[in-house]
Amino acid sequence: MQNYTQLNARELRLKWAEIIGRPIPPIGRSLVIKYLLWYEQAKREKISPLGFFHEVAQAAKSIDKRPKATLEVGSKMVRSYQGTKYEVEIISQGYLYRHKTYKSLSGVAKAITGKSWNGNVFFGVKK
After folding, report:
1. Strand-pair partners of 79
2. Please, how many CA atoms are within 13 Å of residue 80, restricted to the half-sphere of its CB?
3. Cα→Cα distances 32→21, 25, 54, 78, 93, Å
4. What is the pLDDT of residues 51-61, one digit of tens each?
5. By three-state DSSP, how is residue 115 classified?
6. Are 19 and 40 a contacting pair, CB within 8 Å?
7. What is the pTM of this model?
8. S-S: 119 plus which of 1, 79, 106, 127, CB 3.0-4.6 Å?
9. What is the DSSP letter of 96?
């Protein structure tokens, strides 16, 4: 395994072309080095980099197709936070909390806590 940190920009470009076979993209030096090291490791372990990226892309597509949690209009969620009980109603326009409509549960959680939260996590909504 080569120490790419010792190479100058020209040497890195040549090494990239030799190993990867295409021009180097406009990315930072540290990313170029990491990519070259990964490519070397993939070659040693007989992994096709393009095949690997294809598998990752396919996996990402299947994740996006998972069903999302659906909450019915009219449902109410109750959450206790720091000793106080909070109630949010699901309406067709979003979420109703203290006579104000929010587009997201995260907005409601921020109104309650004063901090940014993932609303699904704050209210315990399961997928």
Report:
1. 86
2. 1
3. 14, 9, 20, 49, 47
4. 888 888 888 88
5. coil
6. yes
7. 0.46
8. 106
9. E
